[in-house]
Every structure is written in C-alpha cells, then in structure tokens.
Amino acid sequence: MPMGRPKAELELSEDERSQLISIARSRSISAALVTRARIVLAAADGEPNSAIAQRLQLTRATVGKWRLRFLEQRINGLYDEVRPGKPRTIDDERLAQLIHKTLHTKPADGSTHWSVRTIAAETAISPTSVHRYFKLLGLQPHRSESFKLSTDQFFIEKLRDVVGLYLSPPENALVLCVDEKSQCQALERTQPMLPMGFGYVEGVTHDYVRHGTTTLFAALNVLNGAVLATCKPRHRHQEFLSFLREIDKAVPAELDVHCIVDNYSSHKHPKVKAWLAARPRWHMHFIPTYSSWLNQVERFFALITDKAIRRGSFGSVKQLIRRIDQFVSHYNENCKPFIWTASADSILEKLHRLCSRISGTEH
Asked: In this protein, which residues make up the domain named Tc1-like transposase DDE (predicted)?
C-alpha cells in the first residue's frame, strides 16, 4: 500500500520536453539548472521521488521542491529567483557626478586624462567601484585613437567615385588598388632572437643595424585579392611608370584598367600623364587627401608589415626583397578579396556625426 500524500500528475508538452532535454544535455549552463531539468524529466516518466533522489544523490525534499515548483510555474520556475542583495552605497547622483567628471573635466594637476585612482580620490568612490562602473559603461579615459579629416575640396566626389568602383565594378574591366610602401628598412638585430616558449613571448632586441631600404610597389586586384608586387630602389615617377608598364603587360588587352591611387606627386607627373593619355583603356581614380583608408591595398601593406617585415632580421636589402617576394608568392596561392560593404552615404553620415561631436570643442 503506497505511503505518503498523493502527488499531482506531472505531464509535459512536446515543447516542454524538448526544452528540458536540451537543458539536461547542456554543458554551458549552470549545473543546478541541469539537475532540476533531470528531476522534472524523471518525474514526468513516473519515477518516484525517492528513486530520483537516490539516483541523483539528492534529498527527497529537494526533488519534491523542484517537482512542485515546475507544476506551479512550469519551466520558468526552474530558474533561481532574483535575490535582493546588499543595498547600493553609491546613489544615482554620485554616479552621475563620476560620469560627468570623467567625460567633461581634466585633473587639476595638469594631467591629460583621469585614471581610476585619481577619479576615485576626486569623487570619494573606491577604486574598485570606479573600475566596475568604467567597465559597465564602457568608459576608457586611459585610451585614445587617432583620426584625420580630409581637407580635399572634392572629397565627396572622390569618395563616391572610389566606393562606387568597390560596390559596383564596371564590366569588362579590372579594378586595381595601387600604392607604394616606401622606406622598407632592412634591419638586422644585433643579437639573436629569443624563441617563444611556454609562458613567455618571442624576444627581440631593441637595437639594430640598418642595411638600406627598398620601396614596395603593389597592385591589389579588387575582384580576387591577388597582388602584383615588385621592389624598386627608389620612389620616383620613373619607378612608378615602370610599375604601370608591368601592370599593363599583366592585364589582358581586352580589359580596361581602373586604377585607384593616392595624390602622391609621382602619380601626377607629366610623363605619367602622357603615358596614360596614350593608353585610353587606363582610368585613374584618385582618393581624397588624408584618406588612405579608402585604398584597399593599404590593408595588404598592413599584413605584410605585420607578418613578414616588422619582426624580421635582414642582413641585406636583397634578403629583405627575397622575404617580400616569398610572402607575396604564398599570399597569392590562397588570396581572398577584401569585401567592401560601406556605402558612400553611410560613410558621409558617420563623418557628419563625428563633425557634430568635435564642433564647439576647445580646439
């Protein structure tokens, strides 16, 4: 004869059962919630509370508690209730004072920005609380980022021209981003590098011997990301014109060439203009001044600098050029294009917001 009070039947819908199974099998949520889901699933299968408690190594009171909680509140009842916790010691007024001082004032000692400890001493809030509020609100007074607005009077026209080539390239044409990375230095470290190991990073001496420089000319194919690159000893219109001839030979004769370049003087030299005038398939597109971010080949320069040049040690310029050629060859084997997604209007809207923020400042 069964003993104890009769228990209400526990039945699950298909949706509830699938959710509980998902919770019971999860490895990313809390172990307590997983155990509660297993209790409910076992109870729904008709297993007695005592058997569930013995199998899961729980007390019968715990099993009964979560079984009853589920009957009353369903799945939401398995989650812990919000606990009140300790009352706040920093009210909204003091928090607003902290935010205002951080954003709109400077320390009286002449420092350029607040630190956690200086603002804590100023507002009589503990450094731990200041750090917590800074992290919560995304305030980072110790950091800064650089920017430069273009002063080109035809900025909008040039922006729409270049972005239009990225988003809607012309048919029967090849769009190339061309630029030079000048002063690539062949630096030889005075001591061997300390190899990376467990618990410490690669070590590089701060001093070096200069063995000369080279200029890297590169043309990035916007369609597939392939790069045509060559190193030349100097950075003049003669070298630029020579590189244009290399591009002209590499591009099939039936395709037009749309070339995106910056406003460097060698790109506008009379001899370069004469060479372009004799070849009607060539079309030059100049980015606005102070807008190198518009030229996608700059992204390739960042990659080759970070992965092949900056941390290298080269005993001669020839050795540096070999390293560059090796990197470019391997890069082209698995190259991928840089996908441009921003429209000209979205860029102009962002610049409008930036100008609105900096207008009326003390500068």
From this structure: 175-321
